[in-house]
Write a structure and sequence with these properties.
alpha/beta; cell membrane; single chain; Alpha-Beta Plaits; 4-stranded antiparallel sheet; Rossmann fold; about 325 residues; 6-stranded mixed sheet; 11 helices; 14 strands
């Protein structure tokens, strides 16, 4: 559905070129919700501007729904953009317009007749649960309601792709879950492909099927959530299934392990550690909801001369273990 190949974006500067994207290869499968995460300056904003055609890549290609938009002339690019809906962090509604008029705006720009616009707007407001607020103005809505209007507006031209740029960063936890639930429902109902730019691992856990980590304009890790989480010791695995801080005290050797509760019960994971004897113990643990299931992560403290035995026992019990994990890395 979305294919980025050797994508590179360089901004000239008097102090030297700034490389925002440095050879990005990425595939987003049709009908999935794909998260793109990374710290500030990682290249997330540039990536989304290249996906919308607002930035031309220095080299490489951007293909969306079979169309290589990075090679389109401006006139055809404007038409192609209608196949991509955009949801913004701050929504950017027009305060002087009603909710219905805000949703209708892209249809007006596209030249859709008034009667068709009205029918489409009514349909979309019902879809996002705001059918009774068509005549309200943005100032009369909560933050979550405004974001629902933004989603309805982004869907107005029946796009095949929905791009969401930090769509929940200004919302509280409960409203965030409601908005992400709506995004997931829309994907299921419409078959639309969704890309979410975010710095929040919780957003990825809540709604995404796959995730990509950017650092310094490069892809560091990418894949389906179940796959990246089992890459034990990787930055995405730790960000998506974090454990509490280790308690103070002397360390011998640490073994890190993750498991899906669908395959291994948490009690069985702890029993596997307990079976190793009193000198092996779980020092930190958590279970997190992830991609429709629950995933656990353990940190096990063991004598250095028993590390290989601990790893083998945990693996035999169905966990994915890694001896001597490296230091934590920041995703956001």
């Amino acid at each position: 559905m979305i294919e980025l190949s050797a994508l590179r974006k360089v901004y000239p500067s008097p102090d030297g070129d700034v490389v925002a994207l440095d050879g990005i290869d990425l595939t987003v499968e049709r009908g999935t919700v794909h998260g793109v995460v990374g710290r500030s300056g990682a290249g997330k904003s540039t990536l989304i501007r290249c996906l919308t055609g607002l930035e031309r890549p220095t080299s490489g290609t951007v293909t969306v729904d079979g169309v290589t938009i990075s090679a389109l002339p401006e006139a055809r690019l404007r038409a192609a953009r209608r196949r991509t809906g955009m949801v913004f962090q701050h929504v950017n509604l027009l305060d002087s317009r009603t909710i219905a008029a805000n949703v209708a705006y892209p249809l007006e720009v596209a030249g859709v007749p008034r009667r068709q616009r009205a029918a489409r707007v009514a349909e979309l407001l019902d879809v996002v649960g705001l059918g009774d607020r068509a005549g309200a103005h943005p100032a009369q809505l909560s933050g979550g309601q405004k974001q629902r209007v933004g989603i309805a507006r982004a869907l107005a031209t029946e796009p095949s792709v929905l791009l969401c740029d930090e769509p929940t960063s200004a919302l509280d936890g409960e409203t965030t879950r409601e908005v992400l639930g709506l995004v997931r429902d829309l994907r299921d109902r419409l078959g639309i492909t969704v890309v979410i730019i975010t710095h929040e691992p919780a957003v990825v856990r809540e709604v995404c099927d796959a995730v990509t980590l950017l650092q310094h304009g490069r892809v560091v890790q990418s894949g389906a959530l179940a796959d990246v989480v089992t890459q034990v010791g990787s930055p995405l695995s730790r960000a998506l299934v974090p454990v509490p801080d280790l308690p103070p005290g002397a360390r011998r050797a640490l073994v890190e392990a993750v498991y899906s509760t669908r395959a291994v019960a948490t009690s069985a994971a702890f029993a596997a550690v307990a079976s190793l004897g009193d000198d092996v113990e779980v020092t930190s643990a958590t279970v997190e909801p992830l991609a429709g299931e629950r995933v656990g992560r353990l940190i096990v403290d063991a004598p250095r001369d028993r590390v290989e035995e601990v790893v083998a026992r945990l693996r035999a019990a169905g966990l994915e273990p890694l001896a001597a994990p490296t230091s934590e890395e920041e995703v956001a």
